[in-house]
């Protein structure tokens, strides 16, 4: 517990700041009207897919590979993994840019976008995904540093970057002095500026004498087994991330049948669910390093002990936020817009799904811990089960004319499924079979498993 909390404290701070970046942007875009807010709601699941893929899936694979290499005292491989992670980031950034810029209109139309909301979505999306490499670069460099157990540097960089974004975002959106207002495109430009400056600072630290890693020209030779060490965790994690965001995207499309205000309400309310992702990541990222290092050193019991402590903390944190949101939904929604129809749809979502947010936090933190263990099969199954329940339940709700309340009830059931499947699997020995815990810390040193 002390180690996890010490590592998590700066990481929760960095994740709060990073979540704040998105909330700041949403707040100012909301001042442009319901169409602009709905346009951002259409793009948001796709942006979060890129964020969660780069920071959570591939970022987790990178941090896990580096932590396991350091735990096994393979320092040269840990140094070489930096370049391999950056190559992977460049490739995936290009894929995202080509897919979303080229297919954005088709995608957002299928999600229910029409008229001014669709045009706002396309304008914002084209700017953000044209700069996809900056997002991938920032999150990859952060993951590399976190893999060494250093949570403080990414925290400082993100918090300072957010403090710059606060004045920059409204300046570019609304204009000031000789600078004309750029509307929703200005929000995207401010966001990319944040990632650019942050990437420069992270890279400067990584190649400085203070860094634990020493990437150099000697590591320019690419080796498949190092790519494999990242990708075997990252690619499986991508399936889980895709399922999470597909569930949100499909729900957005289902809600789209109830009008633009419903999309804006659901999109604004579900941002609170997305806010849980970086908060839980604040605990999950240290777990990747702790579990990976412990398993690399052969200490399976210690890895499981850290995992369940993290799971309890994540459940409590997410459930507290969910219950608050269900009790006072308008306190959150009214920050962004005052349209009565938007507020009604968003409040319905939070009252329905908020009380089960703890299960989402539980499933997500166990996903991160599984990254550290290099065992992601069950977290992926849990996320696919969540997707199946959300999509099937939402479709049946519309078919049986259950309305928005029934669609949102299916999302709540999906979150419970996700948490229960992940917890059940790990408790049942999904990583390496049943492992007994010692009763005292000394036992951790005496009961190492045989090779």
TrEMBL record:
CDD domains registered for this protein in UniProt: MATE_like_3
Transmembrane segments: 12-30, 36-59, 80-101, 121-141, 153-176, 182-208, 229-255, 275-296, 308-328, 348-369, 376-398, 404-432
Keyword Transmembrane attached: yes
InterPro entries associated with the record: MATE_fam, MdtK-like, Membrane_Transporter-Flippase
Predominant subcellular localization, coarse grouping: membrane
Topology relative to the membrane: Multi-pass membrane protein
One term of GO molecular function: xenobiotic transmembrane transporter activity
A Pfam family annotated for this UniProt entry: MatE
Subcellular location: Cell inner membrane
GO cellular component, one term: plasma membrane
UniProt KW keywords: Cell membrane, Membrane, Transmembrane, Transmembrane helix, Transport
Protein name in UniProt: MATE efflux family protein
Organism of provenance: Acidovorax delafieldii 2AN
């Amino acid at each position: 517990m002390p180690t996890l909390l010490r590592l998590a404290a700066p990481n929760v701070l960095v994740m709060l700041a990073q979540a704040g970046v998105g909330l700041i942007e949403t707040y100012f875009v909301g001042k442009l009207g319901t169409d602009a807010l709905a346009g951002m709601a259409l793009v948001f699941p796709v942006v979060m897919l890129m964020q969660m893929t780069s920071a959570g899936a591939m970022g987790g694979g990178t941090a896990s590979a580096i932590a396991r290499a350091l735990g096994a005292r393979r320092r040269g491989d840990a140094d070489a993994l930096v370049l391999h992670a950056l190559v992977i980031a460049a490739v995936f950034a290009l894929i995202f840019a080509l897919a979303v810029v080229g297919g954005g209109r088709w995608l957002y139309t299928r999600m229910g976008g029409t008229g001014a909301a669709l045009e706002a979505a396309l304008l914002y999306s084209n700017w953000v995904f044209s700069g996809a490499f900056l997002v991938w670069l920032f999150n990859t460099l952060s993951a590399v540093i976190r893999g060494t157990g250093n949570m403080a540097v990414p925290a400082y960089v993100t918090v300072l970057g957010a403090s710059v974004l606060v004045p920059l975002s409204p300046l570019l959106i609304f204009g000031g002095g000789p600078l004309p207002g750029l509307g929703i495109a200005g929000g995207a430009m401010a966001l990319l500026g944040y990632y650019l400056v942050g990437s420069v600072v992270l890279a400067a630290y990584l190649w400085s004498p203070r860094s634990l890693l020493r990437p150099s020209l000697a590591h320019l030779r690419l080796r498949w087994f190092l790519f494999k060490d990242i990708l075997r965790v990252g690619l499986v994690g991508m399936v889980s991330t895709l399922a999470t965001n597909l569930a949100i995207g499909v729900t957005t499309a289902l809600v789209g049948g109830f009008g633009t205000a419903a999309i804006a309400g659901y999109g604004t309310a579900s941002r609170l669910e997305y806010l849980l992702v970086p908060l839980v990541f604040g605990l999950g990222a240290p777990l990747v390093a702790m579990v990976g290092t412990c398993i690399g050193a052969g200490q399976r019991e210690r890895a499981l002990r850290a995992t369940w402590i993290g799971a309890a903390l994540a459940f409590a944190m997410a459930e507290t936020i969910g219950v608050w949101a269900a009790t006072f939904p308008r306190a959150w929604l009214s920050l962004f817009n005052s349209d009565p129809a938007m507020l009604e749809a968003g409040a319905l979502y939070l009252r329905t799904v908020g009380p089960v947010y703890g299960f989402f936090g539980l499933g997500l933190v166990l996903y991160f811990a599984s990254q550290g263990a290099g065992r992601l099969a069950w977290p992926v199954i849990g996320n696919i089960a969540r997707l199946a329940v959300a999509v099937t339940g939402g479709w049946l709700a519309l078919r049986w004319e259950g309305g928005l309340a029934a669609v949102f009830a299916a999302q709540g059931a999906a979150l419970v499924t996700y948490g229960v499947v992940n917890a059940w699997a790990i408790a049942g020995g999904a990583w390496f079979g049943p492992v007994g815990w010692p009763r005292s810390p000394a036992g951790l040193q005496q009961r190492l498993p045989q090779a």
